[in-house]
Amino acid sequence: MTLLELSDVSVHYGRIQAVSGLTLTVNEGEIVTLIGANGAGKSTTMRAISGIRPVSSGSIRFDGEDITKLRADLRVVRGISQAPEGRGIFPGMTILENLDMGAYARKDRKNLEPEIEHVFELFPRLKERKSQMGGTLSGGEQQMLAIGRALMAKPRLLLLDEPSMGLAPQFIQQIFRIITEINKEGTTVLLVEQNAQQALSRAHRAYVLETGEITKTGTGRELLADDSIKEAYLGVG
Ligand SMILES: Nc1ncnc2c1ncn2[C@@H]1O[C@H](COP(=O)(O)OP(=O)(O)O)[C@@H](O)[C@H]1O
Ligand SMILES: [Mg+2]
């Protein structure tokens, strides 16, 4: 089943067109990755999906309904949750308080214990530090917290914008392993990455974005084997 569908979406910042006529789908249960160079429009696409940035034309459908003009907070209620680029955690709040904030859109937020426990199972490091201020966490820990906070909304679609950015190698492996685990538990994932090697090997399907346009799509495996992808994004050839 198609969970998310972008049709001919364009996004502008003033007169700058950051995304041009982008069409993509994400099916329920998939990990789909969007790869592309710096400035290609990946984060802008994510912002359009989460509703932080309006589209200038085109449409976005989620779970069979048009959400093109739906407010960002109401998209969270529908089941779209984003761990934004640059992490965006609350530095002056503890880990537990940050996790609580992730559940703000839920109607059943009285009992958050099961989700908090679930996040702590995925990220034991956060459990050890649950009363520590977000701003004092290492980069890798902040990234874990950002993903954990997004999961607190119990999303159907999790949007991850460069989760591996700036992380030490052992954290990169761990984050990608956890993304696969979250997906296996039933959450659909749209993953934006510059680490194309890892992203393509984890994803069911992928899209390549170049200066605001999709230039290639296929399974993760197909794109990993594609010569032009190897040359441009995998540092071989
Ligand atoms: N807030 C903004 N104001 C103006 N231009 C922006 C803004 N954010 C991004 N852009 C421009 O939009 C294009 C796409 O950016 P972005 O979506 O952040 O790319 P990516 O995430 O792939 O690196 C770039 O040319 C960038 O300079
Ligand atoms: Mg970006």
UniProtKB/TrEMBL annotation:
The keyword Nucleotide-binding applies. It comes from the Bacteria. Transmembrane segments: none annotated. GO terms for biological process: L-amino acid transport. Pfam families: ABC_tran. Gene3D superfamilies: P-loop containing nucleotide triphosphate hydrolases (3.40.50.300). Residues 4-236 form the ABC transporter domain. GO terms for molecular function: ATP binding; ATP hydrolysis activity; branched-chain amino acid transmembrane transporter activity. The keyword Nucleotide-binding applies. Keywords: Amino-acid transport, ATP-binding, Nucleotide-binding, Transport. SUPFAM superfamilies: P-loop containing nucleoside triphosphate hydrolases. InterPro entries: AAA+_ATPase, ABC_branched_ATPase_LivF/BraG, ABC_transporter-like_ATP-bd, ABC_transporter-like_CS, BCAA_Transport_ATP-bd_LivF, P-loop_NTPase. PANTHER family: HIGH-AFFINITY BRANCHED-CHAIN AMINO ACID TRANSPORT ATP-BINDING PROTEIN LIVF. Belongs to the ABC transporter superfamily. This is ABC transporter ATP-binding protein. It comes from Amycolatopsis antarctica.
